[in-house]
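Quick one, T. Sequence first:
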Amino acid sequence: MTARVDRREYPERPIVGVGAAIVRDGRVLIVKRRYEPLAGRWSLPGGTLEIGETLEAGVTREMQEETGLDVEVGPVIEVFDRILLDEARRVRYHFVLVDYLCWPVGGDLRAGSDVDTAIFVDPAALLPYNLTAKAQAVIERGLELAREAPWTAR
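Structure tokens:
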């Protein structure tokens, strides 16, 4: 039997990814990506789901790996496609992303192996970070959800 190769670039089918708007004291955590897609850009933390892993377990693992934070996973904010094409209009990346609202419950904030920087930012100060329109929309919806059902320490 031939081993399957995990190809993120020019995949054979869409790849499932998970991400989070981590909210603490009205601020949201953003990361500067180290690798493609979106290398060098600010975004929400996240990564790909592993085989046999639930969505919530995946987001918990990815947040620990990328930010050093242990999180409580809240509601889904949004599910969407991120499809990036190359110059020849071939699909270079195709992710189906599930973003959650999360709250930090432990750990120490640090940039993990897939990110250069991880910081909490006041939502009113996000403009200089040049987030994608989709990341900005997910953050706004996540903050709305956090106001509607605020997390309280348990």
